[in-house]
Fold this protein.
Amino acid sequence: MGNPILEVENLVKSYGAVQAVRGVSFSVEEGEVFGLLGPNGAGKTSTVEILEGLRDLDSGRVSVCGLDPQRDSQALKHEIGAALQSTSLPDKLRVMEALRLFSSFYQRRRNPEELLKRFGLEEKRNAFYSQLSGGQKQRLALAMALVNDPRVLFFDEPTAGLDPQVRREIYDIIEELKREKKTIVMTTHYIEEAERLCDRVAIVDHGKVVALGTPRELKTRSGGSTRIEVRLAKPEPDGALRNLEGVADAREVDGAYVLHSHRPPQTIVAIVKHLEAQGNELVSLEIASPSLEDVFIEMTGRRLRD
Amino acid sequence: MRNFATLTRMRIQLTLRNKMFLFFTVLMPFAFFFLYAGVFAKGQPLVVKFFLGPVVALTVMGSFWGLSAALVMFREQGILRRFHVTPVTASDMLASSVVANYVLMFPTVLLEFVFARSIFHVTNFGNLLATFILISIGTVSFASLGLVVASVTNTMQETQVINQLLWLPLIFLSGATFPLAFLPKVVQKVSLFLPATYLVQGLGHAIF
């Protein structure tokens, strides 16, 4: 690989008896959008907060812009920008004041006026933080992450809790940053977000990276096959569906059966015949090209839900 | 240093926009002032002057309320975390809290003196330099008490409970509300352990 701007090696972090991060390793190239995808509690936020210098690590090694977040935290803070999870600003702080205040902390700054315009907050420049909608607050959070023109941006769950339309607005903003070749490390538990925005994705579960690659690579890894999801009137014994024609693998997920098939038409016919012979009935059937969700299910045996 | 100055300005601005703060820092001290001067002292200049010490002491002690509440709110809402990813240091944050509090409290005390003079015709405020020093030391000390409360409590509710527990003995057992001489011997002994007692006595001596 070229020149990583961020490296994580065997990162471990525990809170009391709970091991949140258990040996995570990855590296991020300059100009890349890197996603940590996983359910809540997978250790994504802990990992990112260690990279930002907000938390100390237990063991392992991390480096951001060639700096150690623990030892050189003061220098690092000039190089990074962050939109944290579950954070806010004082209710009575005005939008423009917030941008000015935060940019005053840095030597290298971007023009707050320009950020205000770019993030569509011009009309809200004199509004109190408490008067902003969820989407506006998030846009302000992203704008504030850019005040120092950082080398690496951290977005922790940038669209969590936002409605779909606002979420798409945030996607547009991140895509624009991506076109400007900004290095972004983001966490998410939305498949769509990771597929659409990230150059590479690490799927994280129970504090470990279970798969890592470009969304395309990950999807091919899941067999490159078509996904068939069926719901049945009666449960089928383990493995019965796996032996049908064209089926690469089959597993039960939340009461449905997810199959991957290289020859979908034959498989569907085989399913119907099999069920008839067993006296079982098809309740529903869905066909889809493989998504990152399939990769996730394959790696963890669980679905990724909000 | 520049971050500290910017933060101090922000804290002053925010506090002035906060109704709860205006109540505790501005309205309540004046309520005490007029209660003491108008009702207890019946407006007699010499008695008003005698009560000015305790009233100013109450104003100064009130600092720790708003300060601890503001910081705990900052922490609860994740505002401190946001500052923590910037080059702002914890000492910038704490020092700006104390200084902003001082800047905000001072006009209130000043107005108490102005009212004492213009409305109640008190002349000669004793040793002004000693008064100023006592007010300054008092404000910083009680602001620090606020920082201590903020650092040992986790939620706003806890903070308010601890503040009440501290506030009641501070105002009732320090001579700020009842003269110490009227209180039982045991309570007088207890009062020796309260920082408020020394502030009240010191200001009393300096002004009267």
DSSP finds ten helices and no strands in chain B. Chain B has one domain: 2-207. Chain B has a mean pLDDT of 90. Chain B touches chain A at residues 2-3, 6, 10, 13-14, 17-18, 74, 77-79, 81-82, 84-89 (CB under 8 Å).
